[in-house]
Write a structure and sequence with these properties.
heterodimer, A: about 190 residues, Rossmann fold, 5-stranded parallel β-sheet, 3-stranded antiparallel β-sheet, 10 strands, B: alpha/beta, 9 strands
Chain lengths: ~190, ~140
């Protein structure tokens, strides 16, 4: 006879896939604007450039384009890694996988619905509650906030949790969580 | 007698373009891990698509301009260029163009591309709107 623990383990041995959005699942025309003290735009950085950019003391980084629904809707282009989320989603639909899909993005709440609709249009069903947008929270660095969310996802699942992100800092912090398999997207 | 414009149009060199990832560079898929096969640095591994390589050479011999147009960011220029050089394709290519994450239709149009080879159906659909013929390349690995 099964123990209660065995029952729980078998019933909830689900795995999870967690995907960053920008430059992991999609590329978009949104750029990080580097502004000088007068507010003039000095540079426009892609997320990949931003990941290694060293901000000068007199500069501010403007991420307003990442709040734009229009830019996302009109320019989002799936990367080659989109195939992974499609495969997981298809397996869930066929009933051959009990995985869960999460989105974990540095974008703000304002684009949650756009992301949801975009994925749905591409045949990927992710519940809005499982799209984590941390961009409105300034209490910690992006990497630390992502780590917190990953920890909460880790706590919900007994199976493996696989995390895809294009930023080395996010991957490094994610790897500090036991049971997270963090994969850098290049 | 031909008009000057007709003369210019006839002399215009025809152009074809090829996507890089999963078109020229055939990625290896790891079914068990549901990810691309990766090397020790974590980079996805792959191999030359020899059919496409032959097409690149054939178009060049026919007198076409040949472009490689990739969505990759230009920070990958060296790596991408080296792959083309290592596989003896560099001499057949007129230009290697990075769209830095953007769709390719505008770039193809700008370079007068008539035919574009790609593994992405959405990309080909968008090319169609610009009157560019798209040819789907399938990777049996994925």
């Amino acid at each position: 006879m099964k123990t209660f623990k065995q029952y729980l383990t078998e019933s909830f041995s689900d795995s999870a896939y967690v995907f960053d959005m920008d430059d992991t699942l999609v590329t978009t025309g949104a750029k990080i604007l580097v502004r000088d003290q007068q507010g003039n735009i000095q540079q426009r950085l892609t997320p990949a450039q931003y990941n290694t950019y060293i901000k000068k003391p007199n500069e501010t980084l403007d991420v307003s384009e990442f709040r734009s629904e229009d830019i996302f809707q009109n320019t989002a282009k799936p990367t080659k890694y989109f195939k992974i989320i499609q495969n997981v989603s298809n397996a869930i639909k066929r009933g051959t996988s009990d995985s869960h899909i999460y989105i974990l993005t540095a974008r703000g709440e304002a684009v949650k619905n756009v992301i949801y609709k975009y994925l749905k249009d591409k045949g990927v069903e992710v519940r809005p509650i499982e799209i984590h947008t941390i961009g409105d929270n300034n209490s910690k660095s992006i990497a630390e906030l992502k780590k917190d969310v990953l920890q909460s996802i880790r706590n919900k699942h007994i199976g493996e949790v696989t995390f895809f992100d294009d930023d080395v800092k996010n991957i490094q912090l994610a790897n500090q969580i036991q049971g997270i398999n963090a994969r850098l997207v290049k | 007698m031909q008009s000057f414009k007709e003369h210019i149009m006839q002399d215009k060199q025809r152009a074809v373009s090829f996507d890089f990832d999963n078109t020229i560079f055939k990625l290896h898929w790891d079914k068990e891990n549901n990810d691309f096969v990766r090397d020790e640095r974590g980079d996805p591994t792959g191999e030359l698509n020899t059919d496409i390589a032959q097409k690149i050479k054939d178009y060049r011999v026919k007198g076409y301009k040949v472009y490689v147009i990739t969505t990759r960011y230009a920070i990958w220029r060296e790596e991408t260029e080296n792959f083309l050089k290592d596989n003896n394709l560099w001499g057949y290519i007129d230009d290697l163009i990075f769209t830095n994450g953007a769709w390719k239709a505008q770039t193809c149009k700008k370079h007068g591309v008539e035919i574009h080879y790609d593994d992405d159906r959405d990309e080909l659909r968008r090319l169609g709107y610009k009157g560019i013929k798209g040819i789907l390349v399938k990777n049996e690995n994925i």
